[in-house]
Design a protein that fits this description.
It is a single chain. With 202 residues, the protein is mainly alpha-helical. It has a single domain, classed as Arp2/3 complex 21 kDa subunit ARPC3 (Orthogonal Bundle), CATH 1.10.1760.20. Helices cover 70% and strands 4% of the residues. It has nine helices and two strands, in the order H-H-E-E-H-H-H-H-H-H-H. A two-stranded antiparallel ribbon has the order 1-2. Helix 3 crosses helix 4. It is globular and about 55 Å long.
Length: 202
C-alpha cells in the first residue's frame, strides 16, 4: 500500500503534530463539503439540485485516505443531523435530520461510502496518475449515484419506478459531474508531481 497525500505531507512530523494536522485536514474537508453544498443550482425539472459536493467529497477523500475520508463525511452528516446549516438550501425541507427523508437523502448517505472507495484507491496509488485518478473518482461517483437513485426509487417516488428515478436523479447530472470529475482528477497527480520536485530539490 502506498501513502496518501496527507500521510506523505505529514510523515516527517512528530506523532502529536501528525494527529493535529490530520484532524485539521478532516475539519477542512468537512468545511469544504459544507461550503460546496451552498453552491447549489436548483433545476426546474427535478427536486435534486446541482452542487459541487460530489467532487469535494471525492477529492477530499483521495487526500485523506479511506478511513479519514469516510470519517470526514460521517462527521459532516452528523453536523447536518444536529441542525447546522451545512446542507444545500431547500424550499421544502428544513436543515436537520428531515433532509434525509427528502429527495437528496440517498446522495447524502452515500458520501461516506463514496469517500471510502476513493480514499481506498488513493491509498493504492491511483491518485498519482491522471487516468487512474479519474477511475478512482468514477468508482466513488458510482456510489453517489447508486445511493441517490436507489433512495428515489424506494422512498421518494416509488410510483415512478427506476426510469423515473433515473430521469430525476441521474440523467440531469451525469454529464456535468463527469466533466467536473475530469477536471478535478487532474489535481491529485499535479500535487504529487510538485511534491516530487520539492523532494528532488532537497
Amino acid at each position: 500500500m502506498q501513502m496518501t497525500l496527507l500521510a506523505e505531507m505529514t510523515r516527517a512530523e512528530t506523532r502529536s503534530l501528525r494527529i493535529a494536522e490530520r484532524a485539521g485536514a478532516v475539519a477542512f474537508v468537512i468545511a469544504l463539503t459544507a461550503a460546496a453544498a451552498q453552491v447549489s443550482i436548483p433545476l426546474p425539472f427535478t427536486p435534486v439540485p446541482l452542487t459541487l459536493q460530489p467532487m469535494v467529497v471525492l477529492v477530499g477523500a483521495m487526500v485523506l485516505g479511506a478511513r479519514l475520508g469516510m470519517t470526514s463525511q460521517i462527521l459532516y452528516l452528523a453536523l447536518g443531523i444536529a441542525g447546522l446549516p451545512v446542507f444545500a438550501s431547500s424550499p421544502g425541507l428544513p436543515q436537520g435530520i428531515a433532509r434525509f427523508l427528502g429527495p437528496t437523502g440517498g446522495y447524502l448517505m452515500s458520501y461516506p461510502f463514496a469517500a471510502f472507495v476513493a480514499g481506498w484507491l488513493a491509498e493504492r496509488g491511483w491518485d498519482r496518475r491522471y487516468v487512474t485518478a479519474v477511475l478512482a473518482m468514477i468508482g466513488g461517483l458510482v456510489f453517489v449515484f447508486g445511493g441517490g437513485v436507489t433512495w428515489l426509487v424506494l422512498f421518494v417516488r416509488p410510483d415512478r419506478g427506476v426510469a423515473g428515478a433515473l430521469a430525476t436523479g441521474f440523467f440531469p447530472f451525469v454529464v456535468a459531474d463527469v466533466v467536473k470529475l475530469l477536471v478535478a482528477a487532474a489535481v491529485m497527480p499535479a500535487v504529487w508531481q510538485l511534491l516530487g520536485r520539492a523532494g528532488d530539490s532537497h
